[in-house]
Every structure is written in structure tokens, then in C-alpha cells.
Amino acid sequence: MASLIFTGYLLWVSWQDQREMLVARYSHGLGLLAVVILAIGQKDDIAARFLEYGIGLIVILTVQMAAYKSNSYGMADVLVFLLCGLYFLFQKGPQLYLTAYVMVSAMSGCLLFMVQIVRRNIRGMYLRRPVAYIPYICISFILTNVVV
What we know:
Blueprint: H1 2-20, H2 28-41, H3 43-48, H4 50-69, H5 75-92, H6 97-118, E1 122-123, E2 126-127, H7 134-147
Antiparallel strand pairs: 1-2
Helix pairs in contact: 1-2, 2-5, 4-5, 5-6, 5-7, 6-7
């Protein structure tokens, strides 16, 4: 159930970002709902390994706060990455979440770079015109979820 809700969330924010390059803040509530459902389903494991899950949560929050403060991504991108990280933490557990999280981050950046090279939208190290990044995150999330 949570996976279906999270998939709907990713499709919804991808569509919003592609159409308007703006994602409404309330849209992330659907992804948060899916993460909460996963957390409730894992409550016994979380209680048994509270420290590991706590460290995972701190790592995810720290990475996304650093990315936002460095202006690497916009707030909507940061929230999608954050929810993807939390999804992996509660779905894959504290052993595999970091691997999946890093794979999503790296793969989405590589996909964006490759597509924008083909479209000739890169000048130096910058995009000539801004593009929606969340669809790349979603594709990377789906591919990573299949592999890991």
C-alpha cells in the first residue's frame, strides 16, 4: 500500500515540476503519508534498532540540509530526495538505505547531465535554461528500487 502511495506521489510531483517547474508544498504530504505507513509497519524493527534508524535519519537530514544550503537543488528537489531517503530507510532497512540513497542521487545527476548534453542545454558547468529535475529523480528512484 505504501509503495503505491509513494509511486502516486512521485508521479504527481513529477507532473507538477515538468508542467510548471514549481511543486506545491502540500504535494509532499502524500509522500510523507507513505513514509509514515512504512514506519508504522516497521515499528518493531525500529524499536529494536532505534539507534541505527536514528543515525540513518540524521544522515539523510544532514545531507539534504547541506545540499539546500549550498544551492545545489531547490526546496522541492530537496524534499523529494529527503522522502526518497526516508522511504529507503524504512523499506530497505538501515543496512541498505544509504546504498540506495546514494544510487538515486548519483543516477539522477547522471541522467540529467546525459539528457541535457544531448539537448545541447549545457554551457560550461551550467544549464543554459532551467529544467525540471524531479522527473530524473523519479526515474532514478524506480530503477534503484528495482536493483537494490
